[in-house]
């Protein structure tokens, strides 16, 4: 009989020798009866430890007692001058609160958060004074992810450091209107590009991005691009934030890759915005089991040093039991009351625990601190985390929300949203923090209590500067200097210009072939980083596996099933491809880390993130918004795009709107190319813009939609209007046939339909149509809006003409536009079309069918373009209205089975 059920609590547990087992149980019973519960526990924990050493496969214990992981006797001595550090911490805390309070002055009232930083200032200060390395440190700088709404504390520190002045503090949240500039609400590199490195305030994106930042540091090291092995990533997170899917969803990546350069510090103040995180439960215990299960090293910092002696005297475990069973909601409430309340409602539940504090006054009971506010405890945890090898570490620090802000703030459910302090609160806080500001000054103008900063030569300020000098400079700091790398030469793009001859090749495949050639470029090639969420085979990128290899820091330790194949699946610590598994959120985090390497690490890397276009802007739009904030540079490739082109896949796959979503992101330049030669120019221009060193705005991501419909790729026409390709529109095919004129605008996969319509119009109806390839509806719109704005603000100047208006100005006839997307895509440029404009589009949900049937259903195929054009011409009185009905009947436009536009099948 085999033992499959290893759950020790299972009723059906198999036992090979019940009698022997009973004897062991009796021994344990005996120990407990004679020596008490504590001794019984000791023995059981010791046996569990031994079972681990003997590799008995006993299921692990997911949680430990509600105690500090590091016992007092194992704590290192605190290396700093605690008194001094606490003094300037008080100044920072005061200034942080005043920064927010003053931002509520009459006429301003721009909000802000006080309580989160108040709860976490010790966590940050221990880091700033002893751990976080600046970028001038010989080992390179650490990367610090600051909890978004704790930003006032970081500004307040920078003020003491002399990096920000009082006027800037008063410009908090008035970024445009405050004279001399303001401060952004939260960490936004885009808005404060010399200061912030990592945007964090969209809950959940900080944790996942920190994991992939740590991965990037390893990746750079393993690939020999830069030795980042001495740098650590510190991510400060909220306990409420840990409920976000992205916060917990990638913990296994950090564990599997052994990212011991990564430290999460979770500020467990037990509260989120509205109230308790787990009123009935214990968030620290829940997170402990979750992280441990994922393979992380867990360090709990729950109690301050005042509890040490109580716990040392807690011989029968009564106090520990109370700690274990008290729900978070009660712990929160205690801190809104007083020492007598704590004695009665916490300790008095067990007379043995009550006895432990009988010698203490209520005031002393009140001063029993939470671990996250104690420098010794926090320092011990940070040191252990930074030295831990083989695993990432999470520090779970128990704190009080609104700590030190007085009775109206501490532990209150509403504390997150409270911004203003009453005069009495100000005085209490001033006293608590011992800030030398008089009552009279506070009373004079309670809207504007002064900041506090001593003279520059104050020894405590000097000490603070010295700590930062020793650690390699001030933090946070963002740099954007990087090592230059020569861009690929023009001829590297030749393959894109050549066309495919008689062979039919989809633009996805055309793009992949080009990428392959770019990667071959000796100097620049290694800087291109393909990122794929388990779709390489779909896009024909499995051809990259053998040479570029899949990055795996652990290598490949199994006998690979396809080891003899040419296209073997190859994992390697020096691999180039970041393969994140089926995981678009992780892919975006990797994209963000890789695409900002130029800034965080001073090394250029170009992320080429290729994905199912439906699962890009739609699924991970917020992460792409963050990437824009972080000033990421790179390429986002929406493969298998279009609502009717990805045959058979249906409603959840058929993308008919990603260009619209992309157009809303100011950092994204969107292209919908029809042919590979267009892609070649777009890629080249993109790299030039990002790293050519001449463009005024290089901090952009190029979103390029490519398709899986095989078509004959034409060779690049001679005298191609390259400027037109890059700016968004060029004339692809003129028709000089005499007769009624019309203009067809199309993009991407719809360009061949436009050409089909051009032919049908000529042959069936004697109408001459020119065809324009619109490579970017979004860029044309942006250009138009810029012209509108200029004209509004400069009424005296000659009016600017939008590029598309100018391009189409001599074109005759109605304009008809078609794409494989929603009508909204061509409608983006409606205001700038110099004439009658009609659009066709695939609105509504996609479905699975043949390309031809789907295009007929949405009336976007070749014949549909013909009918729309005739209708527009009839409206203009240029053809007989009867022709429209004739055309509908001729093509059976109402019959989905009569559609013929597009090829069948095609994998990529
Ligand atoms: C994705 C997202 N949803 C909601 C918010 C609004 N929000 C900002 S802070 C916050 C509560 C944070 O609680 P916690 O993570 O526990 O941090 P604490 O302030 O308690 O340290 C919420 C809901 C947000 N910023 N991002
Ligand atoms: Mg919280």
Describe the structure.
Keywords: Magnesium, Metal-binding, Oxidoreductase, Pyruvate, Thiamine pyrophosphate. Residues 488-713 form the Pyruvate dehydrogenase E1 component middle domain. Its EC number is 1.2.4.1. InterPro entries: PDC_E1_N, PDH/Transketolase, PDH_E1, PDH_E1_M, THDP-binding, Transketo_C/PFOR_II, Transketolase-like_C_2, Transketolase_N. The chain is an alpha/beta fold and 908 residues long. Helices cover 40% and strands 10% of the residues. The protein has five domains: 18-59, no CATH class; 82-182 and 192-304 and 369-470, Rossmann fold (3-Layer(aba) Sandwich), CATH 3.40.50; 305-368; 490-712, Rossmann fold, CATH 3.40.50.970; 737-898, Rossmann fold. It has 36 helices and 20 strands. The strands form five sheets. A six-stranded parallel β-sheet has the order 10-7-11-12-14-13, with helices on both faces. Strands 1-2-3-5-4 form a five-stranded parallel β-sheet, sandwiched between helices. A five-stranded mixed β-sheet has the order 16-18-17-19-20. α3 (82-102) runs antiparallel to α4 (115-130). The protein binds thiamine diphosphate and magnesium ion (MG). Magnesium ion is lined by residues 238-240, 269, 271-272, 277. Magnesium ion binds next to loops.
């Amino acid at each position: 009989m085999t033992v499959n059920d290893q759950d020790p609590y299972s009723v059906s547990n198999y036992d090979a020798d019940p009698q022997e087992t009973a004897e062991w149980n009796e021994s344990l019973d005996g120990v407990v009866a004679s020596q008490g519960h504590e001794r019984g526990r000791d023995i059981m924990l010791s046996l569990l430890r031994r079972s681990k050493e003997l590799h008995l496969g006993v299921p692990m214990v997911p949680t430990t007692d509600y105690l500090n992981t590091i016992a007092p006797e194992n704590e290192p001595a605190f290396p700093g001058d605690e008194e001094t550090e606490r003094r300037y911490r008080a100044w920072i805390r005061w200034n942080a609160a005043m920064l927010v309070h003053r931002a509520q002055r009459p006429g301003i009232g721009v909000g802000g958060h006080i309580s989160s930083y108040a709860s976490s200032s010790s966590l940050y200060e221990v880091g700033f004074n002893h751990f976080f390395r600046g970028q001038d440190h010989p080992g390179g700088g650490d990367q610090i992810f600051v909890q978004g709404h704790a930003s006032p504390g970081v500004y307040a520190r920078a003020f003491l450091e002399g990096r920000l002045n009082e006027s800037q503090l008063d410009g908090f949240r008035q970024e445009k209107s405050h004279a001399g500039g303001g401060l952004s609400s939260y960490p936004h590199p885009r808005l404060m590009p010399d200061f912030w490195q990592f945007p964090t305030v969209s809950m959940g994106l900080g944790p996942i991005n920190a994991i992939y930042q740590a991965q990037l540091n390893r990746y750079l090291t393993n690939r020999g691009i830069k030795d980042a092995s001495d740098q650590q990533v510190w991510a400060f997170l909220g306990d409420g934030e840990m409920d976000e899917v992205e916060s917990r969803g990638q913990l296994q990546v950090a564990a599997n890759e052994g990212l011991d350069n990564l430290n999460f510090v979770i500020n467990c103040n037990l509260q989120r915005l509205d109230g308790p995180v787990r009123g009935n439960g214990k968030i620290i215990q829940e997170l402990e089991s979750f992280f441990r299960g994922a393979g992380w090293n867990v360090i709990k910092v729950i109690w301050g040093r005042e509890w040490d002696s109580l716990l040392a005297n807690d011989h029968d475990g009564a106090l520990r039991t109370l700690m274990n069973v008290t729900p978070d909601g009660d712990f929160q409430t205690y801190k809104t009351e007083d020492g007598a309340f704590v004695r009665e409602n916490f300790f008095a539940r067990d007379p043995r625990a009550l006895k432990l504090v009988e010698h203490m006054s209520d005031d002393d009971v009140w001063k029993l601190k939470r671990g996250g506010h104690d420098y010794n405890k926090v320092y011990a945890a940070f040191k252990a985390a930074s030295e831990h090898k083989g695993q990432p570490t999470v520090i779970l620090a128990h704190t009080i929300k609104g700590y030190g802000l007085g009775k109206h703030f501490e532990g209150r459910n509403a504390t997150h949203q409270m911004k203003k302090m009453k005069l009495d609160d100000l005085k209490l806080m001033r006293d608590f923090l011992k800030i030398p500001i008089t009552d009279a000054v506070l009373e004079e103008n309670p809207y504007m209590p002064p900041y506090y900063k001593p003279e520059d030569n104050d020894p405590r300020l000097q000490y603070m500067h010295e700590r930062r000098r020793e650690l390699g400079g001030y933090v946070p700091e963002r740099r954007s200097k990087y090592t230059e790398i020569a861009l690929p030469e023009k001829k590297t793009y030749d393959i894109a210009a050549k066309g495919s001859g008689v062979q039919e090749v989809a633009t996805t495949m055309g793009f992949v072939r080009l990428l392959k050639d770019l990667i071959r470029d000796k100097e620049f090639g290694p800087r291109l980083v393909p990122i794929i969420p388990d779709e390489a085979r779909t896009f024909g990128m499995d051809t990259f596996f053998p040479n570029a290899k899949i990055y795996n820091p652990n290598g490949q330790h199994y006998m690979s099933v396809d080891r003899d194949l040419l296209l073997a699946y190859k994992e390697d610590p020096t691999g180039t491809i970041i393969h994140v598994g089926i995981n678009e959120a992780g892919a975006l985090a990797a994209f963000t880390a890789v695409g900002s390497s130029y800034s965080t690490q001073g090394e250029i890397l170009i992320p080429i993130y290729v994905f199912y276009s439906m699962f890009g802007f739609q699924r991970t739009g917020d992460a792409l918004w963050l990437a824009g904030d972080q000033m990421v540079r790179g390429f986002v490739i929406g493969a298998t795009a279009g609502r009717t082109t990805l045959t058979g896949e249906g409603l959840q796959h058929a993308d008919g709107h990603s260009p619209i979503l992309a157009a809303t992101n100011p950092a994204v330049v969107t292209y919908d190319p029809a042919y590979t030669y267009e892609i070649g120019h777009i890629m080249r221009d993109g790299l030039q813009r990002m790293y050519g060193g001449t463009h005024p705005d290089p901090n952009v991501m190029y979103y390029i939609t490519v398709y899986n419909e095989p078509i004959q790729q034409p060779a690049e026409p001679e005298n191609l209007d390259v400027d037109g390709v890059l700016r968004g529109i060029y004339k692809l095919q003129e028709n000089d046939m005499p007769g009624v004129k019309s203009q067809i605008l199309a993009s991407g996969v719809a360009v061949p339909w436009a050409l089909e319509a051009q032919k049908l119009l000529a042959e069936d109806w004697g109408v001459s149509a020119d065809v324009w390839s619109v490579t970017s509806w979004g860029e044309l719109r942006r250009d138009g809006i810029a012209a509108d704005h200029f004209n509004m603000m400069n009424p005296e100047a000659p009016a600017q003409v939008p590029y598309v208006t100018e391009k189409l100005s001599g074109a005759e006839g109605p304009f008809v536009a078609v794409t494989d997307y929603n009508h909204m895509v061509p409608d983006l440029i409606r205001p700038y079309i110099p004439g009658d404009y009609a659009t066709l589009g695939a609105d509504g949900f996609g479905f699975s069918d043949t390309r031809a049937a789907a295009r007929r259903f949405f009336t976007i195929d070749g014949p549909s373009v013909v009918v729309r054009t005739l209708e527009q011409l009839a409206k203009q009185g240029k053809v007989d209205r009867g022709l429209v009905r004739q055309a509908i009947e001729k093509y059976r436009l109402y019959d989905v089975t009569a559609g013929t536009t597009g090829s069948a099948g095609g994998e990529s």
